[in-house]
Each structure stands twice: as C-alpha cells, then as structure tokens.
Amino acid sequence: MEFEFWMLLGIPLFFSLGWIAARVDIKQLVSESRTLPRGYFKGLNFLLNEQPDKAIDAFIEIVKLDPETADMHFALGNLFRRRGEVERAIRVHQNLLARPDLPLEQQHHAGYELGMDYLKAGLLDRAEETFNGLVDSQYGVQAQRALLEIYQREKEWKRAITAAQGLQSSGAGMRQKEIAQFYCELAQDALVHLHTDEAMALLEQALLSDRTNVRATILIGDVQLAKGDVEGALMTWRRVEQQSVPHVALVAARLMDGYRKVGRPQEGVNLLRSYLAEASSIDLIEVVFKAVTELDGAQAAKDLVVEELRRTPTLLGLDKLLEARMMDAPPEVFDELSMVKNLVHGYTQKLARYQCGHCGFKARQFYWQCPGCSRWDSYPPRRTEELNVMN
C-alpha cells in the first residue's frame, strides 16, 4: 500500500476533535456538580464526621427538593439496617413513603425496605402488614419470601404452607421439603393433644410433599404407638433405614422400647446390631449397649464397645468402654476407672454435639430446624466427633 502524505493532515484533526470532546465532557460534569443541592455535600460532610442523625436530616431535605435522590436514601437506609441501626433505617424509609409525589415503583421499593426494617427489628405484625401490601407488586416474590420467614418465626404453619405454595406457583423455586416439615410441625402439635387421626392425615400430606422425609415416617410410628398399634409402629420405624441409614440412630430407642413391649427384646437387639454394622453411631451404640447389658450381661456389652471402638475410634466410644469396664471392676480398680471416666466424660460432653451443616451452630440435641440459621434438615444425625473421624 502506497503512503499518501495527505494522511498526515488527519492526525492533528482527530487530535483536535478528541480535545474538544473532552472539554465538553468536563464542562458537563462541572455543570452537573453545580446543580447538586448544597444539602448533598452537607449530608456527606455529616457522614464523614460520624454524625448520621444530622446526615439523615440533610438527605431528607434533599428528597423534598429533588425526588431523584431517593436512590441515595435507599442505600443509606440499607447501610443503617446492616449496622443494626434499625430505628434510623425505619425513619429514612418512612419519610420516603410520606412523599405524595414519589413514583409508584419507588413507593413499592420503599415499602419493601421498610418491611425489612420491621423484620430486622422483630416487629413482625408491622412487617407482615407491610409485605402483604406488596404481594401484587413487582416485589411480590421478595414479599412472599419475607412472609414465609415471618410465619415460621410465629409458628403459623398453615399460613407458612400457603406462602410456600405461593412461592412455588410463582416459579421462585421448589419448597416441597419445607412444606413437608410444616405439615410435620402441625402433626406433632396434633399428636401432643392426642388428635391422632388429624396427625395421621397431616403426615400423609407431608409424605405427599416429600417422600424422603424421615421425620414424617418417625411421627407416623409415634401416632401408631399412641393408638396402641405397637407392631405397626415397629414396621414404620424400620422404614427409616430405606430413607436414610444414618437417621436410624434417631429411632433406635423407639425400636428397642417397642420390641420390649411385644416381648421380643432379643430381636430388637439383633436388628440394631445389624444397623450398627452398617452405619456406626454413638447414639446407636448407647441404645444397643444398654440393651445388651440387660440381656447378655456386662461382658457382652464390653465386647460390643471394644469392637465398635476398633472400627470407629472416638473419645465418646472410649467413654462407653470405661463405663463397661466399671460394671465388673474390683473395688481397688473401680475408683481409678471412675476418676478416668469422669475426666473423659467431662471432655466428651463438648464433643457430643450436633452441628448444622449450613451455619455451624452446635447443639446438644438434634433439631429438624437449625436454631441458628432456621434452615430445615441441615443437621447430620451424627455427633461432631464422629463426623471428624469419618472425614
């Protein structure tokens, strides 16, 4: 390609055009900055000097003059809520809603943020009322999620079911596992009041929602037991193994008590020992240990614990071994074993915890819903030490 000297003339031309464009942008920027209200810079100054109350007052004055600054208030309100200054967040969003000329979309946005403020503050009645007013808005899905959280906190399980079903219908994800748990909560309450037929109907609904729900199966066995059908309860509890082998430990005591009631305790021990061989568990060992001690004596119980300790070495297992040794220990050895056991037992109490797989919250007892993060089915049915050994 032959070089043309006239091309050199284009270089200064393009440079000049770029310089002019840059000057125009700078002038526009300066012009826009001059149009900002003085209250904006005043509010920023208050924020930088850690005077949030005065900053809020300054920003509210800006909104009265210019509704376009509402987005800044949303950011400020969220900042206060995250910092735990919920009263200030409520004040920001209430003042936004008080504007009669605020666009409808921003009204809904402010209403949603105000509902979240109330929820954070624990004002559940106000939060519920606010979110109910947003169900048909563009914030409908978020409002339904918040309502679902409120109904769970208030233990309004029927309303929680309706809210979860509404979320499913809106395409916001499957909620079948949670719905099954809500039915279980209702069934458990009915069972406490000896409304066995109602409880059974609710548990059938739970299994229709989630066939793998172990809790529903366990509770069906409880209902059958309450009706006097021990054999039926035993058959139901045995189905837990088909759903989740580790969860068998949760029904071990029920199974053993049931087999005692029907006069077949040895069959119960044999069944639980087969479960133990399939999935070792400290809770399962505890039940089998007591049953073997009653039926076969201290030596058989000791052999059982030694076998399990070799297979899964844990301090919790060692605690049971020391207990077995103390049963037939001579007086001169008993005191020493008792001292060692007390030391080991004191330490194992810190290890004998269930731990949420989502937030890590630890608890002495097993929960279907984590007290820390409110997640359902987040607790593995094994103690923390067992999980550490397995990993």
TrEMBL record:
Mostly located where? membrane
Q: Please state where this protein is localized.
A: Cell inner membrane
Please provide an example of a Pfam family that matches this protein in its UniProt record.
Zn_ribbon_LapB
Q: Does the keyword Repeat apply?
A: yes
Q: Tell me the ranges covered by the LapB rubredoxin metal binding domain, including all copies.
A: 354-378
Q: Which residues participate in Fe cation binding?
A: 356, 359, 370, 373
UniProt keyword terms in alphabetical order: Cell inner membrane, Cell membrane, Iron, Membrane, Metal-binding, Repeat, TPR repeat, Transmembrane, Transmembrane helix
Q: Give residue ranges on the Cytoplasmic side.
A: 23-391
Q: What HAMAP family does the record tag this protein with?
A: LPS_assembly_LapB
Cited NCBIfam families = PRK11788.1-3 (NF008755), PRK11788.1-5 (NF008757)
Recorded family membership: Belongs to the LapB family.
Q: Which PANTHER family match?
A: LIPOPOLYSACCHARIDE ASSEMBLY PROTEIN B (PTHR45586:SF1), TPR REPEAT-CONTAINING PROTEIN PA4667 (PTHR45586)
Q: What does this protein do?
A: Modulates cellular lipopolysaccharide (LPS) levels by regulating LpxC, which is involved in lipid A biosynthesis. May act by modulating the proteolytic activity of FtsH towards LpxC. May also coordinate assembly of proteins involved in LPS synthesis at the plasma membrane.
Name it: Lipopolysaccharide assembly protein B
Q: What is the lineage of its organism?
A: Bacteria, Pseudomonadati, Pseudomonadota, Betaproteobacteria, Burkholderiales
